[in-house]
Amino acid sequence: MTTISPGVVESELADSITDPGARDVMREFRRIALPAAAIARAIKFAAEEPDDVDLSEIIVRPTAGEF
Which of 1, 15, 39, 67 is the most buried (most CB within 10 A)? Predict the structure, then answer.
């Protein structure tokens, strides 16, 4: 089993926040968000490993920003 821990990922979440201040903070936080395709590539990578390889964890983070 492989655990995939994505960093901030693009989504419509910030658009559904009703508090204007919180919505603005979330939009700024997501400014460097990863596209969903980046997480899909990580999942594909893990799924394609041979049976004799144990890939236990993948952490996927954006390369921009202060992380």
Answer: 39
